[in-house]
Amino acid sequence: MTKRPTFDAALQQLREKLMTMVSASQHALHEAIEALKTQDVAKADEIIENDKKINELEREINELAIMTILKQQPVASDLRRLIVALKISSDVERIGDIAVNIAKSVKFIGTEPHVKPIVHIPEMAAIVNEMLDHALHAFHNDDIEEAKRIALEDDRVDELQGKIIQELIDLMSEKPEFTNQITQLSFVTRNLERAGDHVTNIAENILYSVKGIRIDLNY
């Protein structure tokens, strides 16, 4: 049986750690895109190194959630909240990994002049970070309407991805000497699309936490 004050304290601690983890992943994603725009290889190295902190936060969240389940024996609705916290931390950790992937592309491109100005990729990243803000707010406030709106934002990410990929295909024909860089930029675009999907997963888990039913927003 759940001891309410103790459980509430553990849940609040989980929320705080998740907020810290989301902020760290957002920062990593933002810095990865800045490194791409400025071709800052040193910053890319920092992003890769700092990913350890995000991984450690996920480990702490997992341990806290599991210990709370074992000690508190929560009722169904409380157990659901703990499981959702675990699932959200996994998606947030994946977003941190995506920042690392982008940083690796930055290193691969190096100081080669950009084949064209980097404009739409930062737009994609900004939308993903906005989605994370909304997901965090929805999680903190059990706001199912805000969680549902995240799927609409993910549609914008998908639309931008399609636009960028077409531009890169055209560039491949026009400037074949930039093939390696164009390939890396396509990897970056694909990674950002995956990040949007991870935030949509978070939104689905928020809906599950509040309503107790699974709703597929990735349609």
UniProtKB/TrEMBL annotation:
Keyword Transport: yes
Residues passing through the membrane, by range: none
Domain PhoU: 20-106, 121-206
Keyword Cytoplasm: yes
Localisation: Cytoplasm
GO BP of this protein: intracellular phosphate ion homeostasis; negative regulation of phosphate metabolic process; phosphate ion transport
Coiled-coil features, chain-numbered ranges: none
Gene Ontology CC, one term: cytoplasm
Gene3D superfamilies recorded: Phosphate transport system protein phou homolog 2, domain 2 (1.20.58.220)
Main location: cytoplasm
InterPro entries to which the protein is assigned, alphabetical: PhoU (IPR028366), PhoU-like_sf (IPR038078), PhoU_dom (IPR026022)
Key words of the record: Cytoplasm, Phosphate transport, Transport
Assembly notes: Homodimer.
NCBIfam families reported in the protein's UniProt record: phoU_full
Described purpose of this protein according to its UniProt entry: Plays a role in the regulation of phosphate uptake.
UniProt record similarity statement: Belongs to the PhoU family.
Protein name, per record: Phosphate-specific transport system accessory protein PhoU
Source organism (scientific name): Anoxybacillus flavithermus AK1
